[in-house]
Design brief:
The protein has one domain (2-287): Rossmann fold, CATH 3.40.50.1820. The chain is an alpha/beta fold. Helix 3 crosses helix 4. It has 6 helices and 13 strands.
Length: 293
């Protein structure tokens, strides 16, 4: 069974890359049902609400590869986690558009369509974290065969996706599912993480305390935070996470707290300085030598 899962995964990854030049292709994360899934509990849909393209009811989580032009690609790769309160996925302005921006920097991107909505009797992040850990490993496996091979693998997330990205960057020593194939022998630790207005980082009744289920250690990767003071998701979460990284001795992290800009803007431009976060993030990646100027 282990061998058959390996060949099935390899087949789908090879198919994805051979057809990539035409359009991005979805690659399923799991050869069968995702861990802990209940048959018939949800059914996937795509909709548009007030100009926001949303994906609902994901039961077959997947990754979609957006590979940078080989003349520009530098080998750095990023998994993209859209937000949506762990209920839906804002798949376009916090997903597809982000992948294209990363490609413009010479970065390969993999859009993660993780399981939503929240599953019954499970923590909101539990099923998505399984998907994110599996995605990290599959991307590392796939990246070995690219024309410009993967060298560094990071993760970026927005809102609930920022929560997921941070948990992926702090929980890599805690396996969340039983190994399936050789890909699961690879590391699920990101080399860096970008967290845009990450949600659910503080206690519900005390925004001055970091959620104790989030533990920073010296093995965590450097992280980039951007948040606004007028966000309904408290910016204290980003500040506390950044300080916890500093206290753990993790070097290279960066944080930006802007006064205005609200929540859920993704790459959309506004009159507020927070719209400059992509430029700040790219400069940060240069400082870490993840990309060149």
């Amino acid at each position: 069974m282990f061998r058959s899962h390996f060949f099935l995964t390899s087949f789908f990854l090879s198919l994805c890359f051979s057809l990539f030049a035409e359009e991005p292709k979805d690659v399923l994360l799991w050869p069968g049902d995702a861990p802990g899934e209940v048959e018939g509990e949800v059914g996937e849909e795509t909709e548009e609400v007030k100009g926001v393209k949303r994906v609902r009811n994901v039961t077959k989580p997947s990754i979609t590869f957006f590979l940078a032009d080989q003349q520009k690609a530098n080998g750095t790769t990023v998994i993209v986690c859209p937000g949506g309160a762990y209920q839906i996925l804002a798949i376009e302005h916090e997903g597809e558009d982000v992948c294209k921006w990363l490609n413009s920097l010479g970065i390969h991107a993999a859009l993660l369509k993780y399981r939503v909505p929240r599953r019954k009797n499970r923590e909101p992040h539990a099923a998505p974290l399984q998907d994110a850990q599996r995605a990290m490993r599959l991307v590392r496996q796939a990246g070995k065969s690219w024309e410009v091979p993967l060298t560094k693998l990071g993760i970026i997330g927005f809102s609930a996706g920022g929560n997921l990205a941070l948990r992926t960057a702090t929980s890599f020593e805690e396996p969340t599912y039983e190994p399936i194939d050789p890909a699961d022998q690879l590391s699920c630790r990101p080399d860096f993480a970008l967290l845009l207005y990450p949600a659910y980082l503080t206690l519900k009744d005390d925004r001055t305390v970091l959620d104790p289920s989030i533990e920073m250690t010296s093995n965590c990767p450097p992280m980039f935070f951007a948040h606004t003071g007028d966000d309904h998701i408290p910016a204290e979460g980003s500040v506390l996470a950044y300080l916890a990284l500093e206290q753990a001795g993790v070097e290279g992290s960066e944080i930006h707290i802007f006064p205005y800009g609200g929540h859920g803007y993704g790459l959309r431009q506004s009159r507020y300085p927070v719209s400059q976060w992509p430029n700040l993030a790219s400069t940060w990646l240069v400082s870490l030598k993840m990309i060149e100027k």
